[in-house]
Design a protein that fits this description.
It is a single chain. The protein is an all-alpha fold. Helices cover 77% and strands 0% of the residues. The chain has one domain. The protein has helices at 2-32, 36-50, 54-67, 73-84. It is elongated, with a radius of gyration of 15 Å. The protein starts with a helix and ends in a 10-residue tail after the last helix.
Amino acid sequence: MARLEEEVAQLRQAIASHTVIDQAVGVVVCLHRLSPADGFTVLRVTSQLANTKLHTVAEAVLDWAHTRRPLPAPIMDALNEALRAHPGAGTVGS
């Protein structure tokens, strides 16, 4: 029973994480006129360049979208670099 409860808890965490990532993809897609696939790629590349977990990058993007507080510098720099790889997608200010 304990194993099943642990598995259910892990699945719930995965669902919550995917929701945050999907919302952040939506922000990137809307602001930079990218396809959803390209929006996800931008976030994934940002995560790799910033050496930061994808979920953490997604949370930062959502926080920025909700509050307009600046993104942490390593994430902002990595996001701008990832966006430069997509023609027509502008970069992010502070």
